[in-house]
Amino acid sequence: MSSTAESASSPAAPAVASRQAGAAQPGAGPAAVGLHPDLSAVPRIDFVLLALAVAGVALSAPLISAIAAPAVAIAFWRNCMATGILAPIALLRHRGELRAMTRRTVGLSLAAGAFLALHFAMWLPSLRLTSVATSTALCTATPLWTTLYLRLRGHRPPRVVWVGIGLAFAGVVLLTGFDLTLSSRAVLGDLLALGAGMAASGYFLLGSEVRRTVSTTAYTFVCYATTAVLLLVACLLSGQSLTGYSPTAWWQIVLLTASAQFLGHSLSNRVVRTLGPSFVSTAILLETPGAALIAAVWLGQLPPVAVYPAVAMILAGLLLIIRGSSSRSGQGA
Fold first, then answer.
1. How far is Cα of residue 135 from the mean position of the Cα atoms in its chain?
2. The EamA domain covers which part of the protein (predicted)?
3. 113 pLDDT exceeds 90?
4. For the ranges 4-13, 73-82, 169-178, 200-209, the one whose mean pLDDT is highest
5. 3-state secondary structure the chain
């Protein structure tokens, strides 16, 4: 997820569904469901944790680009490792909850895992086809797709949200049009990143529904396990090698799992209870410039100057979508 995109398990997803996200934390206090909490009363450590979460997801894209291993195989090992770490916690401390999950919540969790697998299967290859800045910006358009989906379901966003949608779409068209002048390879990367963002939106919407009644640990265990199995099948069918990597590549995969899967997502889940989904969603947008900066310093990957205005338009549009949707939700719309 991109981390927004990646983090669809993270509450740093669009605030248009923030009411569902807030209700998704079993046993959470009032701050967990507040759209506009009093930030002056929030412990400073939570802001530090949020900064670490943003840094964790921002490291994801440059790290994936640097790992000398097949893209889908990286996604498999990342989810496999995460599932392995979650397994003893989920099976020992949440066994009763897992058994009590209804057929509906299990089905939604499996479907969310399928969307997450699709997200990874498209986003990771896109990082090999286009720049980190472009891929991350297009993939973090999750709030855009979620808003459009909710509109189809009858929700009526305020005018500022439509302005944000128009601005974000204009940025997408500008960015993809520029890549069209570079190569068809770059355009394919753009399309994969857009598709990954759409898949992340589906993953978030399903996950927010499950987390109304199921803890994050139980839900993510079922979801990550499903994702790992589906990605394993994809690797076997496509002939991607699952072993034979260098020690450096294995350490980088472990670092990816720790930074993005756990540090980024878990800390986002932790601080959303006090900072609120709107604030966290907005902060996670910093993933795009953060990833671009890391890629420039570490990989020497400097996108053409024309890319930056398009990325800025996308981020500005997403910010309007998040803010406008959050304000409408806060009014009980």
1. 13
2. 49-176, 188-322
3. yes
4. 73-82
5. CCHHHHHHHCCCCCHHHHHHHHHCCCCCCHHHHCCCCCHHHCCHHHHHHHHHHHHHHHHHHHHHHHCCCCHHHHHHHHHHHHHHHHHHHHHHHCHHHHHHCCHHHHHHHHHHHHHHHHHHHHHHHHCCCCCHHHHHHHHCCHHHHHHHHHHHCCCCCCHHHHHHHHHHHHHHHHHHHHHHHHCHHHHHHHHHHHHHHHHHHHHHHHHHHHCCCCCHHHHHHHHHHHHHHHHHHHHHHHCCCCCCCCHHHHHHHHHHHHHHHHHHHHHHHHHHHHHCHHHHHHHHCCHHHHHHHHHHHHHCCCCCCCHHHHHHHHHHHHHHHHHHHHHHHHCCC
Q: Are 2 and 60 in contact (CB under 8 A)?
A: yes
Question: Model's pTM, two decimal places?
Answer: 0.81
